[in-house]
Amino acid sequence: MPVLETQGVSVRFGGNVALRDVSLTIEPGRVTGLIGPNGAGKTTMFNCVTGMQTVASGRVVFDGRDITGLGPGGRARLGMARTFQRLELFLSLSVRDNIRVAGDIVRANTRHRIDVEAETDRVLELAGLADIAGENVAEIPTGRARVVEVARALMTRPKLLLLDEPASGQTEQESERFADLLRELAADGIAVCLVEHDLPLVMSLCSTIHVLDHGTLIASGTAAEVQRSPEVIAAYIGTEAVA
Amino acid sequence: MTTFLTYTALGLVLGAVYAIAASGLVLTYNTSGIFNFAHGAQAMIGAFTYYQLDVAWDLPAGVALVVVLGVLGPAMGWIQHALIMRGLRDTEQITRIVVTVAIMLGLVALAQWLWDPQEARIPGMLFGVDRTVTVLGVVLRYHEVLCLVIAVALAVGLRVLFNRSRLGVLMRATVDDPDLLSLAGHDPDRVSARAWMLGSTLAVLAGVLITPVIGGPLEANALTLLVVDAFAAALFGRLKSIPLTFLGAIVLGLMNSYLVAYAPSEWTWVGNLRQSLAMIVLFAILILLRHERLRGTATRSRERYEVPTVRRAVVWGGVFVLAVLAFRQIIDPSSVGVLQLGIAFAVIALSQTLLTGYAGELNLAPLAFSAIATLVAFHAGIQGEGLDARMSVGGLVAGVVAAAVTGAIVAVPALRLRGLYLALATLAFGVFVSSMILRDIQEHTLFGKTFAIFPNGNLLFPRLAIGPVDLADDDVFLMVTAVLFAVLGVGLVALRNSGYGRRLAAMKDSPAASAMLGQRLLRLKLTVFALSTAIAGLGGILMSMGLRSVTKEHFVFTMSLSLVMLAVIGGIGYVSGALFGGLIAGAGLTAIVTLLSDTATEHPQFEESLGLVSHIILVGAGLAGIGIAQNPSGILHDVFAAQRRLAKAPEIRYGALAVQCVLYALAWFDVLGTGTFVLLSLVLWLSLPSIGAALRPEKVSGGSARPVPPELIGIDSDYPPGLADRLDEQLGVNALRDRRGVSHAGA
């Protein structure tokens, strides 16, 4: 059963149709990619899933439950977590406290007590951030800051982890280590979904890929299937010719 | 029918003046992103200057108008922009607000200095009262017709400016993206300077027009509050739309006029209600405004605060209590009350540390909540009569709880919106408390009970008694207040270091990321607002118990604003910043002004110059907040940073401690006066890092520890002749030019 399902989602900005009747699924235990040329509607789709954008029509179903009317906080409490394309770190806190505060929030929301300290240590270790735990988050390089955002999201023990362009700003080595981390998370049963421009990374990492173009879903499938799709080739070659 | 038409016409005239004021406010807000709290104060300065020129110096009205509208208005706007507003990039909302609040306080102090408030100045209408026109049986003076004409012209003019003219389009672009505008070859600074000049001139125009319309003498505080009316009107258009702002202004004007016309005469409180009308309308709109979409906004602001550990806070709390105890021994018994008042104010300022410093929310009227707590404690908690009257613990608790509940109620409509709205809602609430609740001094009957909220305008507020502990003694009360401040301060630091404190910091830094982690933002904001107003309530009760007798002047909104401003100057992220703000607002200024006036009584020959100094200090204290743009983290942040440089040279600190003890001994034996002792102690500790650097240069690092990266310094190099040609060559511009046949001169 998919952890997330969108059914015929459409979004309009004034007269512009940003998304037209998009239906897709995200499965647990897998890394799913959402790709498309600039302006295809990837970030809008992301915002619809996380509740930061209201849909004009269609439904969003998470974990068997219709969450179309739910706000971002409510979705987060159901087990959805995201990172931001333009980093949204808590700049006055240290790396460790950025992660710890996510645990504080979970503890404030739920009745049962979780050991925030121990959980923070575990996540720091898992994400490979233990060496910079004490540093001010405003002073670490972008590549590692993206990992901090993922680690912070992991503190909420999400069922679905949404990553908005996680590899931008990372060095090649960093993005390789990052890909390993995502595979590990998927192996633990988390549904990982990423919007990404780095096509080689998406092709090697994602077991399912959804391709958007001009607000329409034009292909879904494995890397090999998507690469053979004539619509996808047209969409990408079309944009590259312009660029 | 004629009555209705007359009051409609008067309402329209008042609305027209509101519209002029509000459009200026919208203009500056939309071109600079800075909400100008000094807008009303600028109107006030304009009105007084016009009066001075026209009436006092007997210049022709035309000349006076040209001077205030052609010179004073634009000049104020230009100075504001050039000196201050440019420095406010990348600062938090509170810093921006405090800077304009500082200008407002400075201007009010200036006006009270230049124009004695005791003297009544009644400005006449332009063209006099005799020249009238009659429309549909309604007699309108030329002045009133002029207001309507100007408003209509302004509505049309601003529409043309924004939609048709180049400058208007540039102004709109300045808000959207100043960087892009400068890339396109324009100077956003110049555009925004013009907007400020125009906005300020509109404020002055409104100021000159309004007093004859309302009637009565010029009053500095009332004119300054024109900003609240203008804001309420602007809120109709969400601070953006000029046409809706005009609509809002007209609605306000009409409501005001109809209230006078049709409210039953036995409603004596209508006069007070009129003054609060803007604030009531404002709250209604806040409730109706749509929830704003959550957007990612985490940008790095220039404010920085270190978080001390709880252990450190406990040590400093102990030091503070001991210092107060020691200081008490060397001051005059008559000054104990002033010192206690300062610490009570510091407790009120602590509410700002929690709310603004930790959580990033705003409250511009902490004293309004202090007033609520005082009133509830007064009505609920006094036991005994006359000299034996004592405040009960129950009364204290009731007062604090009432402040917290009121805080929550005030905050609810605004919490869904951005911080600025909360700031304005609280300011409006402060005005409401001053102009309605604290003016309810006559007994009246409601629901079968006869009472007055603020009996006779003067509360005799007894001290607390808990079982055998009686706080009637001034020394005991001083120490209890000091201990309470220390305990609350340590409590706040502990709170900041807890999960709750981290969640507040996270919400302040990025509401979007916080919400996406599951944080219930509204609930968190509501709890922190209620907690902070509870602290303000407790501080207010401590203040009232200290004073023993309070009037509405003790809770006036300018005092609230001064306190907020001084706490920000000290460092809003620090408990010590609250102490700084409270001591200066509650004790420091009083002490200085008292000292000066005492000296003046002793030496009458200096009276004039000492009075001048005292005025300069008051205006200067108001204007001090402007400096915050240069140093948004507050002065204590720099003081701490400097002291940390001495960490490796403890002998310097021990030496300073020894000198401090000697100073104390000298003060003890009355060799040094209290003022001299305080001054020398301050000089000693503030200059210690420099002294340390001079004595132990090898141990005390000088200046900032981190080297500045070269990209921030920037490297300039010459632009040698021929470089342009070489660049053209490499970019292929020449080839292109040849092909298109464009002449070189065109480039």
List keywords for this structure.
heterodimer, A: alpha/beta, four-stranded antiparallel β-sheet, 9 helices, B: 747 residues, ABC transporter involved in vitamin B12 uptake, BtuC, 4 domains, two-stranded antiparallel sheet, 10 strands
* Radius of gyration of CA atoms of chain B, rounded to a whole number: 29 Å
Q: Count of helical segments of chain B?
A: 30
Residues in helices of chain B, as a percent range: 55-70%
The level of helicity of chain A is 40-55%
Going by helix content, strand content and strand pairing, the class of chain A is: alpha/beta
Multimeric state: heterodimer
Q: Main β-sheet of chain B, in a few words?
A: 2 strands, antiparallel
Shape of chain A: globular
Report the strand count of chain A.
10
* Mean pLDDT across every amino acid position of chain B: 83
C-alpha geometry of chain B: globular
Which regions of chain B contain 5 or more consecutive residues with pLDDT less than 50?
A: 743-747
Radius of gyration of chain A: 18 Å
Mean pLDDT of chain A: 88
Which regions of chain A contain 5 or more consecutive residues with pLDDT less than 50?
none
Distance between the termini of chain B: 70 Å
Order of SSEs of chain A: EEEHEEHEHHHEHEHEEHH
Portion of residues in beta strands of chain B equals: under 5%
Indicate the proportion of strand residues of chain A: 15-25%
Number of contiguous helices of chain A: 9
